[in-house]
Amino acid sequence: MEMNNPAPRNAIDDNRQGLIGKGINRVEGLLKVTGQAPYAYEVVEGEGGKAAYGFIVGATIAKGTVAGIDTAAAENAPGVLLVWTHRNAPRQGAWGPLDAKDRYGRASPQMGSNRVDYYGQAVAYVVAQTFEQARAAAYLVKVRYAPEPGEFELAPARGKAVKPPDEPNQKTDSLVGDFASAFEGAAVKVDSSYTTPCHIHAQMEPHATMAYWKDGRVVIHCASQLLESAQQAVAGTLQIAPDKVRIVSRYVGGGFGGKLPVYGDVMLSAMAARQLNRPVKTALTRQQMFHFTTHRSDTMQRVRLGATADGKFVAIGHETWAHSARFDNFMENASLQTRTLYAAPNRMTTHRLVKLDLPIADSTRAPGEAVGMLALEQAVDELAEKLKLDPIELRIRNEPAQDPELNVPYSSRQLVACMREGAQRFGWRNRRAEPAAVVEGRWWIGMGMAAATRSNFLMPSKCNVALDRQGVLTVRMAMTDIGTGSYTVLTQVAAETMGLPVDKVRMLLGDSDFPETPGSGGSWGAASAGSGLFDACTNLREKLARKLGVAPAEAVFADGRVSGAGKSETLGALAGTLGLEASGEIKPGSMAKKFSQQAYGAHFAEVAVHRDTGEIRLRRMLGVFAAGRILNEKTAKNQAVGAMVWGVGSALMEEAVVDPRYGFFANQDLAGYHVAAHADIPAVEAIFLPEVDDKTNPLKIKGVGELGICGAGAAVANAVYNACGVRIRQFPLTLDKVM
Ligand code: MOS
Description:
This is Xanthine dehydrogenase. The chain has about 750 residues and is of the alpha+beta class.
């Protein structure tokens, strides 16, 4: 089906079994907690005997060439099967192309030459009988470098920024009205600049691969969010047809955008398995992940807001500078949400790319909004203070009637409802507008809030369903579950649509041999894969109804039976010995253009700032969200709370620190790069307002995976200001910046 019209009332609306929305436990939860759900590196199956183990040697310079490399000691070390460098690595496809439609499907050659373009880049690869032997031998590889000076910092290189090309559906810059004059003449103004640092994904499961060849085809178990992209990337790198590549990612221990691409562990394992004719496993160490995989670019952002004395925006400007690797072109689109969030007759947004000699920057949870909102939502708070207006009231006064840039209605938008509900529940009326007004012992106490918004997407997705004689429905999709709950919410959709209990659905995901989906990314997974599944189930219902001799519209599916026109039969009996299959497909259609689609929310935070040390502690936090129909209140809440925790981390702790002398992240482990721990996170609550959006997709849902991080850190930053009266615009907000 194609999404060209509002979705009609359907089985999901009827929710006869009450499964949709219900917070059922994860269907694969037992397997995971009992260690029976193998992640890529744990997979033991494979053709060609026992697995060998690879270890990657990373460059210890950020830019230059390998001038000499001595592998003799490594080659003679115990258990070593293979040592590759740029001198003997297999020939591979060239990097890119840069303008590829699918940036995650680009070829990614390893050790294609003696060039070093970033710290940690693979300069050698060792395979041995055991992991320990491979790692020990890897340390015996002696590399002599000819280093070259590089540029590693955004600020000093900003003058060399370039304008990235427009994307098909998204211009790099926007200009509406006369921003410059309107800002100049505005009665009340804010002109603030913010910086956000590099962030890493810090997934629990590191990138890892188990590869083997079978019948001229490579089977790759790896940690991937997008199986088709991984398949393309491997095919392009190894110079083989995509159908000679099978990607399997049944369980993925966190993605956050860092597993949208696949990396050298995948390519090298696949090539080594071919050469050695046995399975090869390669995992990255936690330290390697900092450089050998992607990270979120740091940004510099300037936000200018001009308003009338009664708080109507007349001018909104948001400019972003962010880095990409010199050989890449990824842009952190931090100004994008500013085009749609608030109304103003004069608006200007820009994005500029600064090419640096750092590892590849790429998508990280809510690319764009996650750090764009840190700036925008603090600027709005600054403006509210100048206007002596409550920040919620200021936002309400600037609530647009329709999308100010696209000039189309919103599919649904409950930002105001989220702010009001949150204010009520959080006790916002107790907030003192003047900063540093509340003191408890040696602590200042403050409250802050911020809006949340994240774009909503629907992508093409296919599905196959097969019903057997026992009435068991087997679903096949090349979809992934990166810990978000895909297995569970898709099971709920299938079970509810077919009138089957949850335990009669077998959800098979994570295999590129299954029908194509857009995978997990951009918060579109549940909507896209779920809609393809819904279409397949709808087609299966039609077949079953016809078999029973009932008009499909009259057929009722409940309790494992289909009934109508005085007849009733079990699904299993109708499927018969041969079983019954159906396929389905969702295509985006024109609704995405007819309506501006976002999910919304409001964050509220209370912090304490120590008067002597400047230490900042979060005391409590609430997020109120409206994201269409919620498929599973428990998994949705998990997503929201997890994202809010990352928002707190972005505000207060997370920073991959670039050493400007050597061009690497100096704090390259989870001791030096602090991810919020339990002790950092007291009461965090997330709730969802009722919403059903028939413009988005047949399930009438919106993406929830990234919404919760958007604006979360800004609410914390605004609370810090309210607590102590120090406005910090350089993230993270550490105690030294308070003093
Ligand atoms: Mo998301 S950063 O698109 O996985």
